[in-house]
Design a protein that fits this description.
It contains eleven helices and 13 strands. By secondary structure, the chain is α/β, with parallel strands linked by helices.
């Protein structure tokens, strides 16, 4: 049995763990990121956390083949450098070589969305698929494409345009997939609907929950709000548009939907499948469209498996 260390770097927490070649976590540890601190100080905590996860695994460190890191930001995978991460304040950070020097094992650097996609393919919702697209509907729209358990680099589709001249995106373009289909996009549309119908079930739902979240419109629709149901129909239409573009171009066997909105399960997926399957180019095999299953473990497992 071969073993690998996975390091999943998030804005709030950093998770480390020892993962076997079947994608099973056998020892893990978590620390607060402390993103406001200098990058080398955070690195020392990462090293300590890796050692703690190795201790939890009860393995001799010499039995571990390599380590993999999943991190957000603009990275150079080959050089092992985080070129820029605005959330962590990392600039030209040679994190892979620094960890290699401290841990005494090969270290591979990967994008966090790609690592999570690999995790779902190895041990989660897309296990066994020859090709899979993982779409994360969170603050933004993350995407990762995996073929034969290998990450296809550069598949960042959140900023493809699905509505020419549409809503302004944080990237500076208008009409991006992310502008409409992220949790942020859905929240913005929900707030607009509340402003239009201030006495609606939707408005009262938001008031009782104390916040407008990505789930608010689904809760209101379940309670009989017709306009909320129309917004869900509109939202799934935008999501289907983006997915059909990806299916027609890449033909994945499986599309797994994760992130906060993905937790709606069949309330989201059933109407989404209907819209997607109606628009896919004739002759292209229809993919399975499912929910992600690993949660936070996807990034940890995928980071470890990227080091194989």
């Amino acid at each position: 049995m071969k073993y690998y260390v996975g390091i999943d770097i998030g804005g709030t927490n950093i998770k480390t763990g020892v993962v076997n070649e079947r994608g099973e976590i056998i020892g893990e540890h978590s620390i607060p990121t402390g993103a406001d601190r200098p990058q080398d100080v955070v690195l020392e905590d990462i090293i300590a956390s890796v050692r703690a996860s190795i201790s939890a695994s009860k393995l001799d460190g010499g039995k571990i083949e390599a380590a993999g890191i999943g991190t957000p930001g603009f990275i150079d995978t080959q050089a092992g450098i985080v070129i820029y991460n605005n959330n962590l304040g990392w600039h030209d950070f040679a994190v892979a070589s620094k960890l290699n020097a401290s841990l005494g094992m090969p270290v591979h650097l990967e994008n966090d969305a790609d690592a999570a996609a690999l995790g779902e393919v190895v041990a989660g919702s897309a296990k066994g698929a020859k090709s899979a697209m993982i779409i994360t509907l969170g603050t933004g729209v993350g995407s990762g494409y995996v073929v034969n358990e290998r990450i296809v680099p550069g598949c960042e589709f959140g900023h493809m345009v699905i509505e020419y001249g549409g809503r302004e995106c944080t990237c500076g373009r208008k009409g991006c997939f992310e502008s409409y289909c992220s949790a942020t996009g859905l929240i913005n549309m929900t707030k607009e609907l509340i402003a239009e119908y201030p006495d609606s079930i939707l408005a009262n739902t938001a008031k009782s929950e104390g916040i407008v979240s990505g789930h608010t419109v689904f809760d209101a629709a379940m309670n009989g709000d017709v306009e909320a149901s129309h917004l869900i129909d509109k939202y799934t239409g935008y999501l289907a548009c983006g997915l059909v573009n990806l299916i027609n171009g890449l033909q994945p066997e499986v599309i797994s939907i994760g992130g906060g909105i993905g937790k709606q399960g069949e309330r989201l997926l059933a109407p989404l499948r209907e819209k997607v399957f109606a628009e896919v180019y004739k002759g292209i095999p229809l993919p399975k469209i499912v929910s992600c299953t690993l949660g936070y473990k996807a990034g940890l497992i995928g980071a470890a498996m990227s080091a194989r």
